[in-house]
């Protein structure tokens, strides 16, 4: 069963040789403000029949029934937010977790409920914590009390693709390999170094 993906329709005007009209194309309004994704689901026939019945009863599409059921469940299941110590629901917490930016989604989930990170996301998060350039303050191993304001978010976003590639390159390493940020952001501040360093 598939959930329809975003569709963009194009209407093409008819071309007339007699009138000398030029062919023009008119695109329908973009649905970028409300995009959808395609998801394949495998469910048993009995459950599929139940979904059909609910769709008929509620005058919804099958997709609408699934979305309704997910939102209903998300509004009932407890989400204990580690960052703020709140006991909310997944539906409420979604507003603060969701972003179209993948880097923000990973960071926010890691801060709020790290137990929900999958293995790949956890490796990325551990690498972020191990990279001093991403932080405004020193971060010790096993540190708690971290929050988004302590991150150089724009720097993380700028290096996100390279960071993912770095984590993949070192995926078999037994320890986390910090990411090296090149350029101006990585320049060392020598003001804290003693003047009598040995050479």
Write up this protein:
- There is one protein chain.
- The strands form two sheets. The chain has a two-stranded antiparallel sheet with strand order 1-2. Strands 3-4 form a two-stranded antiparallel ribbon.
- It has seven helices and four strands.
- The longest helix is centred in the first third of the chain and has 14 residues.
- The chain is 37% helix and 7% strand.
- The protein is mainly alpha-helical and 199 residues long.
- The N terminus and C terminus are likely disordered.
- Among the domains are: 30 residues; 103 residues, no CATH class.
- 9% of the residues are buried.
- It is elongated, with a radius of gyration of 25 Å.
- It starts with 9 loop residues before the first strand and ends in a 30-residue tail after the last helix.
Short description:
The protein is mostly helical and 199 residues long. It contains 7 helices and 4 strands; from the N terminus they run ββααββααααα.
List the helices and strands and how they pair.
Elements: E1 10-12, E2 25-27, H1 45-58, H2 62-74, E3 78-81, E4 86-89, H3 90-97, H4 102-112, H5 119-129, H6 153-158, H7 160-169
Helix pairs in contact: 1-2
Gyration radius from CA atoms, angstroms: 25 Å
- The chain-level structural class is mainly alpha
List the total number of helices. 7
The helix/strand series, from N terminus to C terminus, equals EEHHEEHHHHH
Task: Provide keyphrases for this structure.
199 residues; mainly alpha; two-stranded antiparallel sheet; 4 strands; elongated; disordered N terminus; disordered C terminus
């Amino acid at each position: 069963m598939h959930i329809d993906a975003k569709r963009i329709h194009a209407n093409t005007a008819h071309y007339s040789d007699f009138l000398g009209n030029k062919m023009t194309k008119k695109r329908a309004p973009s649905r970028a403000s409300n995009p959808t994704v395609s998801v394949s689901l495998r469910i048993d026939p009995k459950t599929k029949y139940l979904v059909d019945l609910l769709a008929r009863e509620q005058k919804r599409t099958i997709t609408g029934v699934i979305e309704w059921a997910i939102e209903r469940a998300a509004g009932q299941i407890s989400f204990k937010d580690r960052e703020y110590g709140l006991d909310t629901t997944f539906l409420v917490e979604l507003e603060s977790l969701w972003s179209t930016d993948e880097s923000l989604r990973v960071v926010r989930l890691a801060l709020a409920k790290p137990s929900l990170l999958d293995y790949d996301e956890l490796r990325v998060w551990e690498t972020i914590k191990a990279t001093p350039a991403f932080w405004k303050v020193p971060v010790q191993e096993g540190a708690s009390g971290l929050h988004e304001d302590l991150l150089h978010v724009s720097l993380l976003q700028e290096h996100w693709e390279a960071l993912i590639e770095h984590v993949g390159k070192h995926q078999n390493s037994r320890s986390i390999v910090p990411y090296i940020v090149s350029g101006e952001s990585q320049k060392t501040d020598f003001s804290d170094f003693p003047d009598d360093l040995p050479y």
